[in-house]
C-alpha cells in the first residue's frame, strides 16, 4: 500500500519559490526568497540558479539582483489550458449549459489568429449556426465569444476574412458590414468595462 501524505521538500521549495516570485512581478532577491522559504541563503542561491538555468526564472529588467518568472512558466500555463479543454473535462459543463439554455453550447479559444471551436454539444430544436463543429474556424464575427476576443484584438491582428468591408453571413443575425462589426465591438468593450466595475 502506497504511503499517503508524503511530500518531497525540494519539490515543495521549488513550487513555493515560483509562487512567491509570481506575487512580485518586478522581481525578488535571493535573500527575500530564502526568508520566504525558510532556507539558508546558499540553498536559495542554488535553487534560484537551478530554476534560472531551466528557464523557470530569469533576471529581472528592474535589476541584476532580482528574479522574475521565466519563459517556461507560460508554456506550462498553455499546457494547463489545453488540458482543461479536453472533451471529457468539458462535457459536464457543456451539458448543463446546453440544457439550461435549450441551445447548442460550445467552447472556443483564440488560436493562431482566429477563433477555433474546441468542443461543442448540440440540442435538437436549438438555434444553431450552419456547419458549426469542433475545429471550426472562420466565424469570429458571427459568434458572441468571437466578439469578446475581437474586442480586445487590434484590427490589424484580425484574421484575413475580416479585413474586407463585406463579411460572410452565417445567419440572419450575422453582421456583414465591417463598420457595423466595429460599432458592435465598441458596445462589447463598454459592456465588459461596466461588468468589471460591478464585480
Uncertain regions spanning at least 5 consecutive residues: none
Category by helix and strand content: mainly alpha
Would you tell me the overall average pLDDT?
Answer: 85
Count the helices. How many?
Answer: 7
One letter per element, helices H and strands E, the order comes to HHHEEHHEEHH
Radius of gyration: 23 Å
**How far apart lie the N and C ends?**
47 Å
Q: Name the CATH homologous superfamily of the largest domain.
A: GAF domain
Strand numbers in spatial order across the main sheet: 1-2
Strand content: 5-15%
**Global morphology:** elongated
CATH C-level of the largest domain? Alpha Beta
What share of the residues lie within helices? 40-55%
CATH structural architecture of the largest domain: 2-Layer Sandwich
When the domains are counted, the total is 2
Based on DSSP secondary structure assignment, what is the total number of beta strands?
Answer: 4
* CATH overall fold name of the largest domain: Beta-Lactamase
Summary?
Helix 2 packs across helix 3. The protein contains seven helices and four strands. It has helices at residues 9-22, 30-37, 41-53, 72-84, 87-101, 144-150, 178-198; strands spanning 57-59, 67-69, 105-111, 114-121.
Features:
199 residues, mainly alpha, Arc Repressor Mutant, subunit A, Beta-Lactamase, two-stranded antiparallel sheet, 7 helices
Amino acid at each position: 500500500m502506497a504511503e499517503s501524505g508524503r511530500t518531497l521538500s525540494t519539490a515543495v521549495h521549488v513550487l513555493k519559490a515560483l509562487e512567491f516570485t509570481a506575487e512580485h512581478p518586478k522581481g525578488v532577491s535571493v535573500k527575500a526568497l530564502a526568508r520566504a522559504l525558510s532556507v539558508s541563503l546558499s540553498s536559495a542561491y542554488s535553487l534560484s540558479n537551478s530554476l534560472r538555468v531551466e528557464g523557470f526564472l530569469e533576471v529581472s529588467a528592474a535589476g541584476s539582483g532580482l528574479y522574475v518568472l521565466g519563459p517556461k512558466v507560460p508554456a506550462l500555463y498553455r499546457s494547463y489550458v489545453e488540458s482543461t479543454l479536453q472533451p471529457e473535462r468539458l462535457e459536464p459543463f457543456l451539458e448543463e449549459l446546453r440544457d439550461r439554455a435549450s441551445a447548442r453550447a460550445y467552447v472556443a479559444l483564440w488560436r493562431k489568429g482566429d477563433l477555433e471551436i474546441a468542443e461543442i454539444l448540440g440540442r435538437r430544436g436549438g438555434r444553431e449556426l450552419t456547419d458549426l463543429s469542433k475545429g471550426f474556424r472562420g466565424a469570429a464575427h458571427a459568434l458572441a465569444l468571437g466578439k469578446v476576443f475581437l474586442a480586445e484584438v487590434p484590427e490589424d491582428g484580425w484574421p484575413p476574412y475580416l479585413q474586407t468591408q463585406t463579411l460572410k453571413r452565417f445567419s440572419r443575425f450575422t453582421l456583414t458590414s465591417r463598420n457595423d462589426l466595429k460599432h458592435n465591438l465598441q458596445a462589447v468593450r463598454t459592456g465588459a468595462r461596466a461588468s468589471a466595475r460591478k464585480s
